[in-house]
Amino acid sequence: MISFVILLLICVKCGVSLSPAEVPAANPVNVKFTVDFTAEGGANSWKNDVAKFLYPENEAFVLGTPKYNEKVSTMSSSVVDKLNSLQEYENTLKNVSDKLNSLQEYENSLKNVSDKLNSLQEYENTLKNVSDKLNSLQEYENSLKNVSDKLNSLQEYENTLKNTLVNSLKEYENTLKNVSDKLNSLQEYENTLKNTLVNSLKEYENTLKNTLVNSLQEYENTLKPVFDKLNSLQEHENTLKNLLNQCKYLVGKSQIPLCRLNPVQIFSEAEHAYPTSCKEILKSGKNKSDVYIIKSKTSTKPFAVLCDMETKGGGWTHIQKRFDGSQDFYLPWRDYKFGFGDLMGEFWIGLENIHHMTAFETSELLVELTDTDKNNYYAQYTSFSIGNEKDGYVLDNIGQYSGNAGDSLLQYHLNSKFSTLDVDLDGNDKKCAQLSEGAWWYKATDDCHWSNLNGKFMTLELPDAYLDHGLNWDSKSRANFAGSRMKIRPVGE
């Protein structure tokens, strides 16, 4: 049996012809054809196999005939030609493979060259950095050189300055030495002058002392009688001051009726015929506004009062007067009970006296107000009276109002008890007397009062936060007044 490479048979049968130009570029390929002749079947057996392969449709094709031989010869020539062509193609492929190998080696070489170029680039960058650093070092070296030059200049300046200072110090030292010598001379002169002056002053002191002693002795002998008289007058003055202070205190407390600073018109003390009010005094023919002594019908002792004999027919008794803030009105209960102040200045007559003057006879009330622009207002009530201390000096009666100040007493304070900083009778948790810094017939409501004539004396316009303070009368928009006067007068006399 004969075995052929299938590729060879296909080429012979189909007449394939490949030229070197048709060979694709590829890796080298070794082409090897092998013809295996096997003696199985005899010497012509392979020929029959070829014939069967080539002409399977003609099984009766007879070997050894001229046609057969011609066909075989033709095919053999063609096979040989094809084999030669294949050999050439193999050689061509081998050359191509060699060239490809060469190209591969060249590519590897190029890669190595590229790597070296990259290395060279890195080296070049490194050299550039080194160059930059060298430039920086050069600049730094230049800077150091400049610094060195400046240091040299400074060194030269230092040497010059040192020499100058040394010379100056030497000159200064010489000058100081001269000054020291002069100071020593001055010290000697000072000592000499001091001794001279001390001796002269001692002599003058002794002379002056003797002169003064003699003069003082004469002056003392002359003034001694004068000093004796002054001491006597001083003692009398102190005595009078003590008496005066006691008198003023007792007048304020209604203890002594005749003690007062200013002259008063007094009814005969022997007869004990004191008038009961300023109105009674007016009726007796005394029409001058002044301080008088009265004794109300229920009072046990007479007391001094200030009478107004001119306003609205006269006969008014002042119970309160304020005009300059000289008297403090933020005082405790005892002061308001007995009264305080100066009848010729600011004062409060005392709740006890007001009670005795109003409790048992009908009296009318006149309130006079003066604002900071010197405008005057008044509020007049047909009746007015207060209770006793046991009742808290309650405002138990206020009559009909008239005037131009507006009513800030009747509609709000009627039946209110009197409160001071230490006695709180207003029934209000706020403690209105302390809140308003005064003393009045305060009410048990949030705003405490509509009038507060015994409040703190302030002539400036009050801000909203201090509307409860000050001398005010609410019907005049809580104006802070510069003065107030409260007066009473019996109605029935």
From TrEMBL:
Keyword field: Coiled coil, Signal
Xref: SMART domains: FBG
UniProt-listed CDD domains: FReD
Domain of life: Eukaryota
Matching InterPro entries: Fibrinogen-like_C, Fibrinogen_a/b/g_C_1, Fibrinogen_a/b/g_C_dom, Fibrinogen_C-term_domain
Signal peptide (residue range): 1-17
Coiled coil stretches, renumbered: 79-189
Domain Fibrinogen C-terminal: 269-492
GO CC, any one term: extracellular space
Protein name: Angiopoietin-related protein 7-like
